[in-house]
Amino acid sequence: MDQIQREKILDKLGKIKQLAEKGVGGEKETALRMYEELKDKYGIAESEVTAAAVPEEAQKKSEQMEFILWTVAQNLGEEQRLCQQCKERLNRKEECRDCSTLQNIKQLEKQFEELSEKRK
């Protein structure tokens, strides 16, 4: 099995392990059984699964970051749409330097860039 397949299996095992730990009743028992069977089938040690698992808190932070980036991108798109409508309606370009919409676009672009770098 190549490295990519192994990582996919480790990821799947991590998710099944979480379900086995947090599940209820039969769901928990089934997940635990699947977890053990897959570990044995692929010869993967418990320590490998633990090392590969993304901590729940890190996963939540990642999801929060994605939501923040999405929100900034939505706001940026709306500001850009408003700016374009204004330019088309008023047929102007040079007078826009002091426009608050243009200032918002610049701030949102900077914020998006900074958040994207932070996400990496």
Instruction: Sum up the overall morphology in one term.
Output: elongated
Instruction: Give unreliable regions as ranges.
Output: none
- Rounded radius of gyration (Å): 24 Å
Helical coverage, percent range: over 70%
The biggest sheet, with number of strands, parallel, antiparallel or mixed sense and barrel status, is: none
Range of strand content:
under 5%
User: How many distinct helices?
Assistant: 5
Give the CA-CA distance, first to last residue.
28 Å
Helix/strand structural class: mainly alpha
- The ordered string of helix (H) and strand (E) elements is HHHHH
Task: Give a quick summary of the entry.
This protein has helices at 3-22, 26-42, 46-52, 56-90, 100-119. By secondary structure, it is mainly α.
Structural write-up:
This protein is an all-alpha fold and 120 residues long. It is built from five helices and no strands. α1 (3-22) runs antiparallel to α2 (26-42) and α4 (56-90) packs antiparallel against α5 (100-119). The radius of gyration is 24 Å and the shape is elongated.
Characteristics:
120 residues, mainly alpha, 5 helices, 0% strand
SSE layout and pairing:
Blueprint: H1 3-22, H2 26-42, H3 46-52, H4 56-90, H5 100-119
Helix pairs in contact: 1-2, 1-3, 4-5
